[in-house]
User: Which sequence fits this backbone?
């Protein structure tokens, strides 16, 4: 029987710094040998190395199976490992708060109690209860992480925004993938970090996306909070591939004073665009990972609006069309068109574009909704083929029309 201090040594090595390749392989080989004899602690620590990719390639499914075998033999740390995997949806397991809570309660290790307190404070799979969470953390005296987290929770309010993800999904499902020419430019708005189940907004950070160029020369710049990265990109059928833009994003809460930011690799954005309140809106579902942990980042959404540049030349062009309700720039158009108009009062507005002659082969509603009194400037994509078109703006019972040319 191997002395328990060996497993303590392995744990310290995994969570320490300066791992060495050969030493990692030696630990992995010894644990695998012990695990063949169905040693519960060896199976758990083998799973830990498989999860972290130490001494072997990272294998989350193998780690999960090692945890399952260790837990079946009564290992409490393995029960915590299973709870963590269900919490995050790792190793081929579904994301499941009820099962995460079940295994944390079965474990009763300091880390299991710590995560159980976090679930209770954040309202993950259970009604948020700040007082109960703080009580659990205060009793978890064996864990420094709980000591660090406690004052942050004392000053914080548990999240309660369950509505936004549902509204976002509803709008996203009805919106269209943007054409690249309409995607180009600068977009600003919010980065919404969700809980692991994707049903609650944990926090909102300012965000900006810039897309420039085309084809192999396409580039993207993404900013979340105060972190920014730029790199090559590609675009196809509503998906903006980012090639792993790496941002260092401040954590909402931290378990350690030296671990205040999370390195996050963004691999792509699944995009949809729509018009809302007279503005072009870009909706995005982010794909991202935490490279240090080798885990997917929690679900995240972006709600961005197009920054429409109406410089002096454009304003002058609008002013020269003051005798028209609809003012446009440029005309003829190639890729994008700015449409400007002023409403005397709040109105139901529909903006549509159709071919000018005969029975139209092309007609599309560009916007439909209620806009407030005042001036509005919208950016719309050009029709796909050259020709003469009619741009119609219906506001309440009035219809205004302009003719434009697509080159």
Assistant:
């Amino acid at each position: 029987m191997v002395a328990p201090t060996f497993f303590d040594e392995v744990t310290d090595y995994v969570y320490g710094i300066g791992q060495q390749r050969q030493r990692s392989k030696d630990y992995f080989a010894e644990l695998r040998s012990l695990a063949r004899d169905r040693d519960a602690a060896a199976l758990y620590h083998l799973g830990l190395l498989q999860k972290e990719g130490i001494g072997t390639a990272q294998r989350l499914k193998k780690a999960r199976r090692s945890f399952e075998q260790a837990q079946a033999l009564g290992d409490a740390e393995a029960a915590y490992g299973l709870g963590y995997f269900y919490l995050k949806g790792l190793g081929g397991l579904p994301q499941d708060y009820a099962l995460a809570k079940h295994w944390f309660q079965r474990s009763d290790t300091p880390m299991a109690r710590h995560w159980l307190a976090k679930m209770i404070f954040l309202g993950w799979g259970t009604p948020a209860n700040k007082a109960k969470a703080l009580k659990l953390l205060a009793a978890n005296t064996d864990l420094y992480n709980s000591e660090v987290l406690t004052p942050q929770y004392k000053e914080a309010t548990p999240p309660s925004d369950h509505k936004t993800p549902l509204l976002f999904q509803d709008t996203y499902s009805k919106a269209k993938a943007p054409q690249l020419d309409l995607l180009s430019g600068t977009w600003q708005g919010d980065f919404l970090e969700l809980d692991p189940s994707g049903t609650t907004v944990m926090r909102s950070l300012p965000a900006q996306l810039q897309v420039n160029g085309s084809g192999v020369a396409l580039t993207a710049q993404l900013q979340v909070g105060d972190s920014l990265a730029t790199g090559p990109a590609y675009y196809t059928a509503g998906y903006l591939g980012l090639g792993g833009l790496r941002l260092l994003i401040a954590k909402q809460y931290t378990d350690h004073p030296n671990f205040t930011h999370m390195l996050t690799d963004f691999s792509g954005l699944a995009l949809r665009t729509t018009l809302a309140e007279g503005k072009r809106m870009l909706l995005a579902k982010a794909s991202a990972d935490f490279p240090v942990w080798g885990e997917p980042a929690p679900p995240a959404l972006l709600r961005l609006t197009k920054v429409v540049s109406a410089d002096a030349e454009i304003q002058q062009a609008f002013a020269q069309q003051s005798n028209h309700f609809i003012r446009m720039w440029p005309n003829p158009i190639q890729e994008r068109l700015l449409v400007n108009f002023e409403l005397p009062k709040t109105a139901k507005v529909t903006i549509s574009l159709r071919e000018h002659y005969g029975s139209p082969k092309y007609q599309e509603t560009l916007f439909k909704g209620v806009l407030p009194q005042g001036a509005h400037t919208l950016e719309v994509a050009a029709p796909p083929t050259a020709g003469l078109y009619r741009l119609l703006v219906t506001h309440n019972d009035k219809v205004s029309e302009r003719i434009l040319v697509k080159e």
Summary: The chain has twelve helices and 17 strands.
